[in-house]
Each structure stands twice: as structure tokens, then as C-alpha cells.
Amino acid sequence: MTSGGYDPNQYPQGGQPQFGQQPQYGEQPKYDQQPPQQPYGQQPQQPYGQPQFGQQQPYGQPQDPYAQQGQYGQQAQYGQQDPYAQQQYGQQGYGQYGQQPGFGGQPGDLLTRFGARFIDGIIAGIPASIVYFVIVFAINSLFGSILAWILYFAIVSAYFVLCETNMGTTLGKKILGLRVIAPGGAPKISPEVSIKRNIYLIVNIIPCLGQLASLGLAIYMAITIEQDPNKQGWHDKFAGGTQVVKG
């Protein structure tokens, strides 16, 4: 022990503590003293159970379930879609493959529509036939026959127009669960639109030639209904885009 307070026996190696030696209790470390270094090529050890920096999780070891989910309010990374994100306003959803757009229901198939047309023909044909035979027997002439013919198909055509404009369907379509939707999904069918879509019936008013024209238009109507994805015949498109749907 010297007078300067320095004890050479305390640090036998030149008065300095050995490299990597911890200071004793109550002794402050020197400012020029560096922390102990690891041997060359060896990384510092991490606490038990904590993976080192850049080291991947061992295979098969379960990950922390709370660390996988993002924090509250945290946005997804760039290029990563949020599965729980809601669809934005005005954004169109993904339609099913092969699904065609409609106005408000499943399009009516060809056989069901012709079945409804057959029922409507019977319903409208009963009063029209009564008027026809009354005029024929009342006016026993060529003029009476022509007049009866015109009134017959006028009554049948009026039946379809009045039913579609007032009920949005006919009795035959209603029985088979069909209805007619106006162009663009409008709530009501106008008389002009209904006349256009039933024009193939109205041409029957013309004797002889009208029947041939009506038959050809009916065949063409069946072909176009079957080939169109929305089951719209040429008469539907001629009327501006009407559609017969189920419901």
C-alpha cells in the first residue's frame, strides 16, 4: 500500500485489471475500458429461448400465435391483401364463372315460356273464339269472316298487352312462375313496349300472309331465346330489352 492509494498487489499485471475481468463491488469502471469481447468467429450468446438475429425459427417449432397477427390498426404490407377487408363503395365484386347479368332473377327457359304461352293461348282464345263465331254467323259473308278474323287476334293481342302492362305478367306465366321485366329493370312495362314484344301475334290480323309471317317469327323467336345467354328472344330485344325471369 503506497501513499498515493495505489496497491500494486491488487493488480499484479502492471497495475491494470485483466481483460474481461469484472470490476469489484463498489468500484466504478474506467471510461477507457472496453467490454469483454467474444473469441474470434463466435457470436455473442442470446438469452435462452430467444433466436439470434437473422436466424430462422427451427423447423417444426410452433410460432407465437400472437406475433403472427398484425397489431390493431396496422395495415397490410405492400402487395399483401387483407382477407378481412371490406369491399369499397362502387367496387364490383367477383362474379361467378359463367354467370350472366340479369335484371332481377333467373331467366326463364324456353320450354317453360312456351308452356306459359300455350296456357295463355287457351285463356285468351276462349273469349276470342266466342266473338269470332258470333260475328261469322251474324254476318254470313266474306266481310264477316274477315272482320271476325281481325277481332279474334285483336282480342288475343290485347290480352297479352293488358296483362303485361297491368300485372307485369300473364296468367299463363303467373301459373308457371314467370314474369316480364321492363327494359333496364324499370318497374312497369309501357303499352308501346308490350306491343313491340308481341308484334308476332299482331301480324296474324292480316289474313293468310299474317299467319305465315307469325309462324316464321315464332320459330325465329325460339331459336334466339335458346341461343341467348339471358334467354332474350328477338322480340325482347326489339322491345328495348325486356326479359322473362322466374319469380
Automatic annotation (TrEMBL):
Residues 109-240 form the RDD domain. GO terms for cellular component: plasma membrane. Keywords: Cell membrane, Membrane, Transmembrane, Transmembrane helix. The chain crosses the membrane at residues 118-140, 146-163, 199-223. It is found in: Cell membrane. Residues 1-84 are annotated as: Disordered. It is a multi-pass membrane protein. InterPro entries: Pra-immunoreactive, RDD. PANTHER family: LMO1584 PROTEIN, PROLINE-RICH ANTIGEN HOMOLOG-RELATED. This is RDD domain-containing protein. It comes from Nocardia cyriacigeorgica (strain GUH-2).
